[in-house]
Amino acid sequence: MKQIYSSIPTAQIITELCVKNHIEHVVISPGSRNAPLTITLANHPKIKAYSIVDERCAAFFALGMTQRFNTPVAVVCTSGSALLNYYPAVSEAFYSNLPLVVISADRPEHLIDIGDGQTIRQTNVFKNHILYSANLKGDFHNSEDQSVHDFNAKETHKALQTAILKQGPVHINAPFDEPLYHKVEKLSAKLLTQKAFDLQPVKFDNSGFVKAWNSSKKKLVLVGVNLDEKIDKEVLKVLSQDSSVIVMTEITSNISDANFFTNIDSILAPIEQESDSVLLFEALQPEMLITFGGLIVSKKIKKFLRQYKPKQHFHIDPREANDTFFSLTQHFETSVNSFFKTVMPRLDNVHSSYFESWNAIRLKTLEFREIYRQQIEFTDFAFYYSLFETLPQDEIVHFANSSSIRYANLFDSKRPIKTFANRGTSGIDGSTSTAIGYAVASQEPTTLVTGDLSFLYDSNALWNQYIPKNFKIILLNNAGGGIFRILPGHKEEDYFENFFETTHQLNAEHLCAMYGINYVTAHDQEEVNKELPAFFERNDSPQLIEIFTPRLKNNKVLLNYFDFLKNNINFKSMLYFKSLES
């Protein structure tokens, strides 16, 4: 079978350099100006091309693929506002350190700002949220202007290498002049060999970390989003078996140990309501904070650590360090495993009651969480008990933002699962598209847990032909933005339901019928108990189960949970204050 190329050399250069940089998956949205790219990329034997019409969905679909592969995936669009629809996914990639490669077709420079159709200022359009922008020069069919070819090749290669080495989004903007659809069977561009870039190893002094570790009786390890690094057992052992160390994780941390604190807000929220909360928070206040992984979901742990600052804060990450708690002491630009391999021989096991005291409280919260279940009506909160009991072994689970991911952080899975959420910008846009992109890339059983607004906002995600048969959606429909009933605000005001909660009477039945997705519902606990296990067993077509919960009761049951913990756990009597202070 003969290779087909666009006759425009720039399209050939971009494609060949994508292949040389091991980009194997490209998501293309249809358009005319990007025809040279589409012709060349879609016909290359080493590239798997996907066609998704909605550019916003296409970019998040590609983002989900990058989560699975941990390598760059490219998205290709036509000129004009099509490119701007990539921006939500670009910003998510930027803050989540995901190598999304945006390739946009553009009008030639002389057609910009003269009133030509489908034309905007595309040069450096993502400048605030991009690692590199390659603004290519225009060329012509079968052009032999080697200086243009060399420039475009150099810029394209630099962008792709930046995405690979620095793990973040890049933008390649390529102007094309008409005619756009001419094809050739041989490369006309002479592609010079491009040098490989290399990141120089960063040297750092870890003596301050070792000194702080060996002198601190209250060490808090906080783990954020962890997509790709499997932490060595030896490291987990050091962290979980030191009496001076508390390890707090979230569901997106993707590490587990029986001694880790997985439900952060279940401890912090009740303490906030205590009359002697200052004394309790001072007892929890770490002398040394160690963080790794990406962004943190819990607003309460952020508030706590900003108010009760550690003496020293060390962050371990090969890419970047956010000074989230305004106390960053040192950033170690390396992997967690490499770092601890270097320092472990010099770390002492410091005797302390820090872990013992707070672990007793942690175990009490788990005990009373189960008791609370017997007392509540069917609501969002009640459903999550069933969800985490029913999730199959090794399921991949994507959580949408707002309520979905926050509820998930109050529970623990009975079986090993791997979880994802778009926490870079924490927007509701693109959650479904990202989950589908991941499922397509992995072909592993994947479930999305989402709320109604997030699902409806991204409903075009279902408009593609690639959804695997073992992909599932759990849709919690509480007829509005339930998160706003949990957050502080004047819920009695006339404008609240329309402009915050945005109530509605919509459901997913007709969408599922249109896209060929098996649809079932549940309205109470009895129906959930019946439908949910069967839902996970069916794998002959994509599935969606819509769980209808009471809009006006969900927030009360959740907030009463924290009151219940406060009223049943005597936090102060369970702590050994003198031991902690000594």
TrEMBL record:
<dbReference type="Pfam" id="PF02775">
    <property type="entry name" value="TPP_enzyme_C"/>
</dbReference>
<comment type="subunit">
    <text>Homodimer.</text>
</comment>
<protein>
    <recommendedName>
        <fullName>2-succinyl-5-enolpyruvyl-6-hydroxy-3-cyclohexene-1-carboxylate synthase</fullName>
        <ecNumber>2.2.1.9</ecNumber>
    </recommendedName>
</protein>
<dbReference type="InterPro" id="IPR004433">
    <property type="entry name" value="MenaQ_synth_MenD"/>
</dbReference>
<feature type="domain" description="Thiamine pyrophosphate enzyme N-terminal TPP-binding">
    <location>
        <begin position="10"/>
        <end position="118"/>
    </location>
</feature>
<dbReference type="InterPro" id="IPR012001">
    <property type="entry name" value="Thiamin_PyroP_enz_TPP-bd_dom"/>
</dbReference>
<dbReference type="InterPro" id="IPR029061">
    <property type="entry name" value="THDP-binding"/>
</dbReference>
<keyword id="KW-0464">Manganese</keyword>
<dbReference type="InterPro" id="IPR011766">
    <property type="entry name" value="TPP_enzyme_TPP-bd"/>
</dbReference>
<dbReference type="GO" id="GO:0030145">
    <property type="term" value="F:manganese ion binding"/>
</dbReference>
<dbReference type="GO" id="GO:0009234">
    <property type="term" value="P:menaquinone biosynthetic process"/>
</dbReference>
<feature type="domain" description="Thiamine pyrophosphate enzyme TPP-binding">
    <location>
        <begin position="407"/>
        <end position="547"/>
    </location>
</feature>
<dbReference type="InterPro" id="IPR032264">
    <property type="entry name" value="MenD_middle"/>
</dbReference>
<dbReference type="GO" id="GO:0000287">
    <property type="term" value="F:magnesium ion binding"/>
</dbReference>
<keyword id="KW-0808">Transferase</keyword>
<dbReference type="Pfam" id="PF02776">
    <property type="entry name" value="TPP_enzyme_N"/>
</dbReference>
<comment type="similarity">
    <text>Belongs to the TPP enzyme family. MenD subfamily.</text>
</comment>
<comment type="pathway">
    <text>Quinol/quinone metabolism; 1,4-dihydroxy-2-naphthoate biosynthesis; 1,4-dihydroxy-2-naphthoate from chorismate: step 2/7.</text>
</comment>
<keyword id="KW-0460">Magnesium</keyword>
<comment type="pathway">
    <text>Quinol/quinone metabolism; menaquinone biosynthesis.</text>
</comment>
<dbReference type="GO" id="GO:0070204">
    <property type="term" value="F:2-succinyl-5-enolpyruvyl-6-hydroxy-3-cyclohexene-1-carboxylic-acid synthase activity"/>
</dbReference>
<dbReference type="Pfam" id="PF16582">
    <property type="entry name" value="TPP_enzyme_M_2"/>
</dbReference>
<dbReference type="GO" id="GO:0030976">
    <property type="term" value="F:thiamine pyrophosphate binding"/>
</dbReference>
<feature type="domain" description="Menaquinone biosynthesis protein MenD middle">
    <location>
        <begin position="217"/>
        <end position="394"/>
    </location>
</feature>
<keyword id="KW-0786">Thiamine pyrophosphate</keyword>
<comment type="function">
    <text>Catalyzes the thiamine diphosphate-dependent decarboxylation of 2-oxoglutarate and the subsequent addition of the resulting succinic semialdehyde-thiamine pyrophosphate anion to isochorismate to yield 2-succinyl-5-enolpyruvyl-6-hydroxy-3-cyclohexene-1-carboxylate (SEPHCHC).</text>
</comment>
<keyword id="KW-0474">Menaquinone biosynthesis</keyword>
<keyword id="KW-0479">Metal-binding</keyword>
